[in-house]
Design brief:
The chain is mainly beta. The protein is built from 2 helices and 36 strands. A hairpin with a 5-residue loop joins strand 34 and strand 35.
């Protein structure tokens, strides 16, 4: 297989021109240097560490057009300590990072999914991922912009920080993962599945907020039910706890006491601690088989903070996520 070992722009361009004219196969870039791609490549591209484990960096600029994929749908695959930075271009299928690699998407269009497996750092500041963004196995995902055409999913000890951009459908957190949401738009549902934790300080959630298994969701702010079309509104099942923080709440139009809600369903409204006003259905779901396992929805009194204090609350959310991650590692 051809190896691209360019260390200068001229040599890189010559190698890429040769690759574009060759039959489709893997174009392996593993020289331990930096390569810039801004033209058409008719191969899928694999980026790997160089001799002695030296990380390789590949930067895709506007004009890049990667037209082929391997048997499992990867158009660009980066592994080891190496990095891929996408500032622009078109990518036929998936872009995947594996085993401590770094993937940054600042622009361009990914034809299918962006994936991270096993201790990756995935950062999205712009561009379009046509379908899903998924991170697994202790990976870190930071989203500050861009468009995700379908779902955002994190599982197996991974963490998500979502502060900008748009997830067209659902944001799902599963299996010991954590999420901190401070901004951005979730077009449909926010889902917490299993032993996970989510902190919501801001942003917009279009439809349902669901916690199942033994999940924890803490809601301090944000626009809830921005789109509507509820199936549940806020739903908590099993050993899960959804907690809302704010100065006042109502159930079915009447003032609600702080603490755990005893009703099984109804309409919950009020003001969150960032000043956001909401009104959504709620349901406490019984997930038990032989014995009841009804989720909790808890209302906690918290005054609207002075201007600037929400920034400290956001930092507190980050610290909380880190502590929970440290606790899981110690176990």
């Amino acid at each position: 297989m051809p190896h691209l070992t360019a260390t200068t722009a001229t040599l890189a361009a010559a190698c890429l021109a040769l690759a574009a004219a060759s039959p489709a196969m893997a174009l392996i870039i593993d020289d331990g240097g930096t390569t810039v791609i801004d033209s058409t490549v008719n191969d899928f591209i694999e980026v790997a560490d160089g001799p002695g484990g030296q990380p390789t960096t590949v930067v895709f600029e506007p004009g890049a057009n990667i037209t082929d994929s391997d048997s499992v749908g990867d158009t660009v695959f980066v592994t080891g300590g190496s990095s891929v930075v996408i500032n622009g271009g078109q990518f036929f299928e998936d872009v995947t990072a594996l085993d401590d690699a770094s993937l940054t998407i600042n622009g361009g269009t990914i034809g299918n999914d962006a994936l991270g497996f096993n201790n990756n750092v995935v950062t999205i500041t712009g561009g379009t991922v046509s379908n899903d963004v998924e991170v697994f196995a202790n990976s870190s995902l930071v989203v500050t912009g861009g468009l995700i055409g379908d779902d955002l999913e994190a599982s197996d000890g991974s963490s998500v920080t979502f502060s900008g951009g748009t997830v067209t459908d659902n944001l799902s957190v599963e299996n010991f993962a954590t999420a901190l949401i401070t901004g951005g738009t979730i077009g449909n549902d926010l889902e917490a599945i299993g032993n996970v934790s989510i902190t919501v300080l801001g942003g917009s959630i279009g439809s349902d907020i669901e916690a199942v298994g033994s999940a924890t969701i803490d809601i301090f702010g944000g626009q809830l039910g921005a789109v509507g079309g509820f199936e549940f509104g806020i739903a908590s099942g099993g050993f899960s706890v959804v907690t809302l923080f704010g100065p006042e709440f109502q159930i079915n139009g009447s003032p609600a006491a702080f603490g755990s809600i005893s009703q099984g369903f109804g309409t919950l409204s009020g003001t969150l601690s960032d000043g956001s006003v909401f009104s959504v259905p709620f349901e406490r779901v019984d997930e038990g088989f032989f014995f009841p396992r009804v989720g909790q929805i808890v209302l906690v009194e918290q005054a609207i903070p002075e201007p600037g204090s929400l920034a400290l609350l956001s930092l507190g959310g980050v610290t909380l996520l880190r502590r929970r991650g440290d606790f899981r590692e110690r176990r």
